[in-house]
Design goal:
single chain, 527 residues, mainly beta, Immunoglobulin-like, four-stranded antiparallel sheet, 2% helix
Length: 527
């Protein structure tokens, strides 16, 4: 301290010159990040910061900068090159000595250092190089580099290519994340099943030092048939099956889900399937069913074309064959071979163990009833799908002592039912035989007005109760028997003759025609 004129006290001092203590990238190192940083031990003169004071050169050419900022907490100056760091290049950073104050300008001058950028390599890829079971779909393809790349070159058309089986395919989007150094590519129509892919990135992306393109290959999973419902060769599939389904090891391309690639055959002929079939059911399962439902007793096959497995598939179609159940008869009413039927008004019924082809059942001649060789009129058959019962009535009722045959077309059991008599059976009504006579044969009774009666073992046809079938004669002369005076007890199966006046000491002969006992009767005679 010294005294100046007029007695003032004065003294001098100076501020310290900031020193550069750290650099990113470091001196003569390889840059792996886009941000350039200079760390000082003291604050710098931020009033001097501008693009003329902070400069960077690539191989001698000045590069425009952006994001110039000084962090007063860490004394760190940071900035970036507008176009990013170019790979395989030499850079020189020049920070004017002005930011360090006049003393810096007069002493050491500018702050400078140099660094180079490496030729980038691919650090990782998605999918992994050489993968063979990549899931087809819309997932992006990614490549992460270990150091900066030439972004402008990367985003130029055709510098990033996706090839399927050696042929370039469209990509809908190419993005690059500078912070993560990650390239992201979206296939235009997604990755397709069973296809070999290659990704090629032009060498220019890695700078002039890069001698070859970047590339890697992978393959998408081939959809292979694992199982089906029904399984191949099954011959007893219920006709109420909801749908055929096939489960694959990998997804099938959506545009391959067509009736051309999934063909449903019935007895060797293609059938129309439901709208929208084949339909994806999730978990790589696909289903289809005939529009008009499954037919009974039929052979079906499903052909799944080789195209659904993609170019890497086996090249062979998958064919699944199966058959629906041929319905069998559980029970019949009347039973097969029953010859003692007495309920002449009962309905005819049979019950199947599986659905039948109702259209065949209801067609003309689908169900027939014969009495001997003569057709018998029947009602329209009724079919209960829940119980499997087929039934019909006989308007004129069954006739006693008659052999019947029920014939149902075998086609109700489907094309695989080849036995023409599978649904045919026979039964017969009871032959009404005489079990009691009044008066008994050979007996003597009192003369006078008397009614003869005949009791049978089963019902007789009331249409046959007349003087044509029942007679009484005296001395070779038939007695008059008025039709309206005959009576019949259907519970006791007893026919009563009209009353006649019997003369004392005379012989009478009564007769019953064998016709009353039906076609199966041999002869019925009374004395």
């Amino acid at each position: 301290m010294r005294a100046e004129a007029e007695g003032d006290f004065v003294w001098e001092f100076s501020t310290a010159v900031p020193q550069l203590v750290d650099r990113t990238p470091a001196m003569d190192s390889q840059a792996t990040d886009y941000v350039i940083k200079a760390v000082f031990d003291l604050a710098i003169d931020t009033n001097q910061l501008n693009e003329e004071v902070v400069q960077i050169f690539r191989d001698g050419a000045a590069q425009p900068i952006t994001g110039l900022d000084f962090d007063t907490q860490s004394n760190t100056l940071a900035f970036e090159i507008v176009d990013g760091l170019a790979p395989g290049a030499r850079y020189q950073v020049r920070l004017s000595g002005k930011i360090g104050g006049p003393k810096r300008v007069l002493s050491e001058g500018d702050f400078t250092w140099e660094f180079v950028t490496p030729i980038p390599n691919i650090a990782s890829t998605v999918p992994l190089a050489g993968s063979e079971n990549v899931t087809a779909g819309d997932d992006p393809i990614e490549a992460t580099f270990d150091s900066p790349v030439d972004i402008d070159a990367l985003l130029l058309a055709d510098n990033v290519q996706l090839l399927a089986g050696g042929v370039a395919v469209d990509v809908s989007e190419v993005e690059f994340d500078r912070d993560l150094r990650r390239l992201r590519v979206l296939p235009g129509t997604g990755l397709r099943a069973g296809t070999r892919y290659a990704v090629r990135i032009a060498s220019v992306v890695g700078g002039i030092g890069r001698r070859s393109d970047y590339s890697w290959e992978f393959s998408t999973a081939v959809p292979e048939l694992l199982r089906s419902i029904p399984e191949d060769g099954i011959v007893d599939v219920a006709a109420d099956l909801q749908e055929f389904s096939a489960h694959f090891s990998a997804p099938i391309d959506a545009d391959q889900l067509t009736v051309r690639n999934f063909t449903l055959m019935h007895q060797g002929s293609a059938v129309q399937v439901r709208p929208g079939d084949p339909i994806a059911r999730g978990d790589n399962s696909y289903a289809m069913a005939p529009l008009e439902g499954w037919k009974v007793g039929s052979r079906y096959s499903v052909r799944m074309a080789a195209a659904i497995s993609g170019p890497l598939g086996s090249g062979l179609d998958n064919v699944i064959s199966f058959a629906t159940t041929i319905p069998q008869i559980l029970r019949r009413t009347p039973a097969v071979g029953d010859t003692a039927i007495t309920d002449l008004g009962s309905e005819i019924q049979l019950v199947f163990d599986a659905p039948i082809d109702q259209s065949v059942l209801l067609q003309n001649g689908g169900v027939q009833l014969f009495a001997g060789t003569l057709p018998v009129e029947i009602s329209t058959p009724a079919y209960d799908m829940e119980t499997g019962a087929v039934s019909f009535q006989i308007p004129a009722a069954l006739q006693p002592g008659t052999a019947y045959e029920v014939r149902i077309l075998s086609q109700v059991g489907g094309p695989l039912q080849t036995d023409p008599l599978a649904y045919t059976w026979n039964f017969a009504t009871r032959v009404p035989r005489i079990v009691a006579l009044t008066p008994e044969p050979g007996s003597s009774i009192a003369a006078g007005r008397t009614r003869l009666a005949v009791s049978f073992s089963g019902p007789v046809s009331e249409q046959l109760i007349s003087n044509d079938q029942f007679s009484i004669s005296h001395l070779g002369r038939l007695l008059p028997l008025p039709l309206e005076e005959f009576s019949y007890d259907p519970v006791a199966y007893r026919v009563s003759f009209p009353a006649v006046d019997l003369v004392s000491g005379s012989s009478y002969r009564a007769g019953v025609s064998a016709r009353t006992s039906g076609p199966l009767a041999q002869f019925v005679g009374l004395q």
